[in-house]
Amino acid sequence: MTSVLIAGELAGGRPAPVTAQLLAAAAQGFPRGAVSVAFLSDSFATAGGWLRSLPAQKVYAIEHPLLGEASAGGYEAPVDALAALCAEMKPDAMLFAKTDFGANTGPRLGYRLAGGVAQDCTGLAAGEAPGTVIVTRPVYGGSAVAEYEMSGPGLKVVIIRPGAFEPAPLGGGQSEAVRFDVSAAVRAPKVRLISAVREAQSGVRLEDARVVVSGGRGLGGPEPFKQLRELAGLLGGAVGASRAACDAGWIDHSHQVGLTGKTVSPPLYIAIAISGASQHMAGCAGSGTIVAINKDREANIFKEARFGIVGDWQKALPAFIATVRDLGKS
């Protein structure tokens, strides 16, 4: 049986959405595995009952002054703490999300423990041999996917792309909460984080939205994104964009969907004036239903879309918005 440890992340003192996605990845990839979750914080005083309700066998609460969100411990303190936990429980695999925390802490931990590291994974499965892990990740700029087998002794660090898995429910479980002491393991960091600045954000986060309205190069400039925001607002969703639109400066790169942007998998993805290049589709192919508006009937996006309009977005989009608004009133 494969032993899996998840590096959980917190947001506002509770499990972040990426933690739910990692739990789903572990459940799908290792249905008979022993799954545990580790959370790092400077205080779990207000954790409440969620530590014991996650769908995992054990939940490790690792508390230390240098482990707070945006604390001076940087990436060194989390590596010290997780290395100590891995030495104690000896997991076969450890899952991180491809966030700032996971992308920086995961590889450091793999190096510290002389383990293997697989980045930007979108698929996960247990191999036939005990402790073997098979991962799927995009290659050749997202135009293909490849499977890699991680075998042999030692820790396998797998960094999962956010949005690649539907989040698992975070309640209803009967996990065992364990306080793990790392006071002797966490050393004074050589690099101290002085300050952190968070980007101001309003509305639904792109990664969490159930409806995403994305625009591409075919919009021709920044002004049309006002209409996309209007449609997204009517649908309770968020606005996305292709890399070309972001590189042109029409919208901030935090809205970019694709191989070098964010991966989203909402029930509804509306692509407006987006050709559907493989790099973009790598970020939205997991969506439930894709709706496309493009004047080029040969555009690749129509190969992926369930519904499509071949025509000028300037004519189709206003009618689309008006219909959605009318339906909302009825």
Question: Care to give the gist of this entry?
Answer:
With 330 residues, the protein is an alpha/beta fold.
Set out the fold topology.
Elements: E1 3-7, E2 10-11, E3 14-15, H1 17-29, E4 34-41, E5 58-63, H2 76-89, E6 93-97, H3 100-112, E7 116-121, E8 123-126, E9 133-139, E10 144-150, E11 156-160, E12 176-180, E13 211-215, H4 225-235, E14 238-241, H5 243-247, E15 268-272, H6 278-281, E16 289-294, H7 301-304, E17 307-310, H8 313-329
Parallel strand pairs: 1-4, 1-6, 4-5, 5-12, 6-11, 7-11, 13-14, 13-15, 15-16, 16-17
Antiparallel strand pairs: 2-3, 8-9, 9-10
Q: Can you describe what's shown?
A:
The chain has 330 residues and is α/β, with parallel strands linked by helices. 25% of the residues lie in helices and 26% in strands. It has 8 helices and 17 strands. It has helices at residues 17-29, 76-89, 100-112, 225-235, 243-247, 278-281, 301-304, 313-329; strands spanning 3-7, 10-11, 14-15, 34-41, 58-63, 93-97, 116-121, 123-126, 133-139, 144-150, 156-160, 176-180, 211-215, 238-241, 268-272, 289-294, 307-310. Strands 7-11-6-1-4-5-12 form a 7-stranded parallel sheet, sandwiched between helices. Strands 14-13-15-16-17 form a 5-stranded parallel sheet. A 3-stranded antiparallel sheet has the order 8-9-10. Helix 2 (76-89) crosses helix 3 and helix 4 (225-235) packs parallel to helix 8 (313-329). The termini are far apart. The model has no long low-confidence stretch (mean pLDDT 90).
